[in-house]
């Protein structure tokens, strides 16, 4: 069994999974992009996410983030220690949510984060105190926003490989059809148009910042040939690879 309360640092690396216990992810610093069951939100200082048991969730923090994570692996036993607060907390843990802490709750979270959480007595009593402070909170669902930073990071890491809508949909925890509709509604582009533009932007940056051969850059951003890459750049930016490199040199002087 893992610790009830633990400090965790998140980075640009995309994480996606589910587990058979409920979890609270409470922001301490930074900005963690968080998606639970297709609902996107951000976990920042004074905010937290509710992850019900068995619910798929994904997160990434391109700028870095530190959170206090509350794993309720022994949920029933903990709730028995809450007396009249138990039913309120049980309802809180039933569905995904993104909530704001009040100043007193925020102080409690930061006090716990600075405590010796490996001490089982402090961790358990602190967990009970935190749950009791959350009793009666109004559960507001996280805004339905796609985790675009996580999607961008995934596209950049896999730009040289075939990408499908289903690959991106998995990151957002959605079916391919629902993801396509949501993406089009939120960005005004289809997912594959977005991928194409992201690849070309990455290719343009590599042309301006490296001495790699054009064919090598084309392969790195998913184009089968230098000619196809050059034609796509001309359509998107109105410039050839040589012109892009000349402009980058001129701008650096």
UniProtKB/TrEMBL annotation:
Residues in HTH araC/xylS-type domain copies: 149-247
Coiled coil residues, start to end: none
Matching SMART domains: HTH_ARAC
Example of a GO MF term: sequence-specific DNA binding
Keywords: DNA-binding, Transcription, Transcription regulation
Record flagged with keyword Cytoplasm: no
Highest rank taxon of the organism: Bacteria
Matches recorded under InterPro entries: AraC_XylS_family_regulators (IPR050204), Homeodomain-like_sf (IPR009057), HTH_AraC (IPR018060), RmlC-like_jellyroll (IPR014710), RmlC_Cupin_sf (IPR011051), Tscrpt_reg_AraC-type_HTH (IPR020449)
Pfam families: HTH_18
Known role: Regulatory protein of the TOL plasmid xyl operons. XylS activates the xylXYZLTEGFJQKIH operon required for the degradation of toluene, m-xylene and p-xylene.
PANTHER family: HTH-TYPE TRANSCRIPTIONAL ACTIVATOR RHAS-RELATED, TRANSCRIPTIONAL ACTIVATOR FEAR
Protein name from the UniProt record: Transcriptional regulator, AraC family
Annotated source species: Pseudomonas delhiensis
């Amino acid at each position: 069994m893992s610790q009830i309360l633990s400090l965790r640092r998140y980075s640009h690396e995309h994480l996606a999974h589910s587990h058979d216990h409920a979890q609270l992810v409470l922001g301490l610093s930074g900005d963690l992009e968080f998606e639970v069951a297709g609902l996107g939100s951000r976990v920042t200082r004074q905010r937290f996410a509710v992850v019900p048991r068995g619910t798929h969730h994904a997160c990434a923090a391109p700028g870095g983030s530190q959170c206090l994570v509350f794993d309720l692996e022994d949920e029933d036993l903990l709730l028995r220690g809450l007396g009249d607060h138990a039913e309120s907390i049980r309802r809180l843990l039933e569905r995904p949510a993104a909530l704001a802490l009040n100043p007193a709750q925020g102080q409690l979270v930061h006090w716990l984060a600075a405590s010796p959480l490996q001490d089982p007595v402090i961790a358990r009593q602190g967990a009970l105190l935190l749950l009791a402070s959350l009793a009666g909170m109004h559960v507001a669902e996280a805004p339905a926003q796609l985790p675009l930073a996580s999607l961008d990071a995934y596209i950049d890491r896999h730009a040289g490989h075939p990408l499908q809508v289903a690959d991106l949909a998995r990151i957002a925890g959605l079916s391919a059809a629902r993801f396509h509709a949501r993406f089009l509604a939120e960005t005004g582009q289809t997912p594959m148009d977005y991928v194409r533009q992201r690849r070309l932007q990455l290719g343009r940056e590599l042309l301006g910042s490296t001495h790699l051969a054009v064919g090598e850059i084309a392969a790195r951003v998913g184009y089968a040939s230098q000619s196809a890459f050059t034609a796509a750049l001309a359509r998107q930016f109105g410039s050839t690879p040589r012109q892009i490199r000349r402009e980058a040199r001129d701008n650096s002087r």
